[in-house]
């Protein structure tokens, strides 16, 4: 797969004829600079040490931003138990995005068949290879994590009722979504950091408003434009629009949008989600008064925020504005605490 | 799934009758202490903040241990391009361990069928659910990373010949292996940190010997027993024993083994692997003189080393020996540099 050719194709004219791009795309620049490493697959990139360092420093800033909430820190591998995934109703809304994990469970004869299929396929060019060898792959009991908070609900449910004030949990995970794209901000595998609040409706709505304020504070301290807007998830199929309209009418989802890949369109870099009692009902998570728990989360798209910084402040991290460098590589804690105090967020 | 029942079953007598375990298993202790979080699926655990802090500190120690090698730091998501995975010949050796990623690619009618299958399955108990809804899942172009170094070979190959001294690369990734187990040291998803050396045979063999010495140094500084032994990979099928014998005869793999789950058996916590020109040949990685590159790697099992520490020094990290605490949470760099100087490793 040739990246330049593909990018040019994306920029083809209305008649389909390739148009020489006036400037290299942001994706091309990221790859040429070595910040992202092309794997040949759209939406799957390696990250350089510089890129990872920005992600690490952003994570530290987000930790300070939420420290007064005394969250429980939990970390999960990027997969869920399949039955938990099935229970979550993700397949009702986003079947096209999920990734299930399959393995070979056969014997010697099965492996011989598999290798013969594979040998035939490998006579073709990479993009034309027939995946017939995968017909023997059987479903395992694991599904890739679609959003960082999914593993926590069944775990919290098993602990019994929430404490009186509810719970706040801090998670971070690689997530998978099957949406190969040339937009570097739309990866198939990316990291989400989340704070998740479980409690009654009032606690959870207050949490979401606080994080709209705190997320906006962080983004403004990073020298990026702040634009929070009502949003909806990409629900599947013909019925999807109705569900999306309903989600908007109920104001369940807000996003903080920043131009990343180009100036004309904006990318959701943070999201602020109220799930009502959806997860609480599925897993029978109870408040201390016996009522079904409501939940909300704030999600930080770690790659997307990093890409927004690279787009707005340039690919040379050392040349970023002093204030932004001081926030990330200086006394991060003091600057975050000062920002919280000044803004009241 | 009931963990206690399963653990008891593992400890069943020869006649299959359950035997009351004299003491809780290490797995039970890890879960009861909250260091690992049970997901209900063998080999898939959440990690507590304390567990993750140990992993982070180990990673810092490993960074200092390799700093004088000036490695290139690259980080990849936990998946490979499928064609690269196919090229790697992993399916010849370990088809049973690989995890391929599949997605739903159908339309509204397909989703309706999927949801009907799923509704039927959900009438059963978790363990009896029929995964028939997954029959519509189609292979994607991604496969889960089986070992942290796999993504780098095709990337390095595309850069052209290696520099004169060869290359050293630092990688870290979650890896997947389909081997559900009650042994907490045998996870389905776990992190490997690796240094990978690419160069001529002499450079690569010197690297491996250096890392046998440095890995042993780290483990002794951690207050753990050092036992390095010749080893082989778990090659699949009837022919697997022949390949394993050949690997041993050629002394391609060594492991550093530490008792983890119990005192009677040892777990490979580090491995030291010489691939000869296997990866170099597949991806046509060339040395500066045009010869095919040889490769070797040292792999640190991050969860396994953490579990070894918890087994040998106790579940209360604050009560670990002073020397171990000083290494991990004190001046890690100075202690590692001192250890390297003293040992000549």
Automatic annotation (TrEMBL), chains A, B:
Any GO MF annotation of the entry: ligase activity
Lineage: Bacteria, Pseudomonadati, Pseudomonadota, Betaproteobacteria, Burkholderiales
This protein's name: Amino acid--[acyl-carrier-protein] ligase
InterPro entries to which the protein is assigned, alphabetical: aa-tRNA-synth_II/BPL/LPL (IPR045864)
The keyword Ligase appears for this protein: yes
Residue span of region Disordered: 1-22
EC number, as in UniProt: 6.2.1.-
UniProt KW keywords: Ligase
